[in-house]
Amino acid sequence: xxxxxxxxxxxxxxxxxxxxxxxxxxxxxxxxxxxxxxxxxxxxxxxxxxxxxxxxxxxxxxxxxxxxxxxxxxxxxxxxxxxxxxxxxxxxxxxxxxxxxxxxxxxxxxxxxxxxxxxxxxxxxxxxxxxxxxxxxxxxxxxxxxxxxxxxxxxxxxxxxxxxxxxxxxxxxxxxxxxxxxxxxxxxxxxxxxxxxxxxxxxxxxxxxxxxxxxxxxxxxxxxxxxxxxxxxxxxxxxxxxxxxxxxxxxxxxxxxxxxxxxxxxxxxxxxxxxxxxxxxxxxxxxxxxxxxxxxxxxxxxxxxxxxxxxxxxxxxxxxxxxxxxxxxxxxxxxxxxxxxxxxxxxxxxxxx
Amino acid sequence: xxxxxxxxxxxxxxxxxxxxxxxxxxxxxxxxxxxxxxxxxxxxxxxxxxxxxxxxxxxxxxxxxxxxxxxxxxxxxxxxxxxxxxxxxxxxxxxxxxxxxxxxxxxxxxxxxxxxxxxxxxxxxxxxxxxxxxxxxxxxxxxxxxxxxxxxxxxxxxxxxxxxxxxxxxxxxxxxxxxxxxxxxxxxxxxxxxxxxxxxxxxxxxxxxxxxxxxxxxxxxxxxxxxxxxxxxxxxxxxxxxxxxxxxxxxxxxxxxxxxxxxxxxxxxxxxxxxxxxxxxxxxxxxxxxxxxxxxxxxxxxxxxxxxxxxxxxxxxxxxxxxxxxxxxxxxxxxxxxxxxxxxxxxxxxxxx
Lengths: 353, 353
Hints:
2 domains; three-stranded mixed beta sheet; Rossmann fold; nucleotide-binding (chains A, B); homodimer; alpha/beta; four-stranded parallel beta sheet; Dehydroquinate synthase-like, alpha domain; lyase (chains A, B); 3-dehydroquinate synthase (chains A, B); about 15% strand; about 50% helix; about 350 residues; cobalt (chains A, B)
């Protein structure tokens, strides 16, 4: 598959990715490599990854604990200390080998250690391949507030190796698939249709490539999220609040990111129907498509109230009002839609119906 | 005094500064203002500052504990939580009212909260006026390692109000004066001479202006410190290690930043004499000038060893070698000078002599 090349960084696929990284390591005179993993990618992905690296540089492995609950400043502090002790400097390179938690956190750690040194993302989850690892958003959670602390900084390059997906369970794969479906909803009705038709054993590679291309185009036109890039937040305003809320309730209740935004997309689909003209037939299509893949979650009255309360902390709000990205139709999103709180209850009722 | 205007931000002086800030607040549609102070600037500077502000925006005051020992990630976490609770968003403005600890830490907090919102620096110490508040270096210490964590991000503007200096004691003033003397050493023999001639009651305003202009010129030619900007680190490689070491020994032993780099400049002046051709007469001039203003510090054998050990953590090192900025003569610096560890002992001996 063709590399997706931009003026600031490039996304390479499969063997071409390893070739590009090895060339990059030969060209840049890095002082040392640091590979950030969690215990899962350390076991499942690191051996394959290291065997494909061709370099004489010293390589240090840093392992963090897996899971969203460890996407915290405390974990950053541990890694910053490790980097200090292992002699990292501004000419070091960090390679983030993992899912979205590892690429988001690793990117932030590298961007802030000694005021920033370069990093490469090697996403190992579907979610990270099509979303987290590209676009330059780095960061960690603050308490139960998702991605509250971070910076925008682009990686040197991104390597997408779909072979790593064989290490994921079905729930993890589905979580990433939710973001791919979002790419269809916000920018291509045809892609949405293609994704719905995928059979269990179809290779995902060409679809991953399409999703990366869609996300990349959007990000490059508006890297700092002043306008267009906001469309990527479809499903995420309510989705993030849902994710934060269940994260706070404890690990056994926690939803994966894609599971939360799948619900967010149904709810915000309903808001789109009421506010921005999304047709009822398309709304039903969205709801049915997600409910085929994601089990329905039961919300108590307390859950719903807590989620609505959390919305006001969402980082996409300005001047205290609640801003949404909504759909005009499948394949076309519209930003900066003001939605009144009354509709949230109706949206939950539609989801539960 | 004329404002110093660049393409990314401007430095304004005195009344013109307040006028510029008030105009800026009228033009930009900020959602809310946050003023970060410490207990000293809260008491001594905030009332004057607020009385000069003309805005209808809501203003929240956030106070941190004063002093370098609080320039930590823990303090950032407290302020990030406060910002969340007080409803800060990406359209908020942070105003950092304080010395270098407040402007460095406040700039980092703003640059990383929700992936960054704008900030203005209002330095209240001489050191912050001529150094910390301009140039876009933000950050905090990690353990005893100075400024280990941070980003480079420019403020919207800097307001220099020399009237705030009346709240400083002589030791604090001297600390800032050390950076001004450095500006002379690295870029203007004439300015160095002028500074040496200042009498106790002479107004500092024109000299502050000259120092800001010198620093600004250097920073703008090389904002991310790839080459030229490194000259600003003269005296800082050993100076930072000295500062970190005494900070670790506890607050009663701690040196102010300028006190540490004054020693650093004598030591690195000696290295310049031995490595880069600084004449003995000029070296003596440097030593005498600093020792007139800064009391001599006693270093034990253990102190010296610990300081030399700390050097390898200094963020200006790459590939493990020890890089210095040295002087060819007073008024001209040269970067990327490799110095062997043997000379450090001799440099200390020259200082102690």
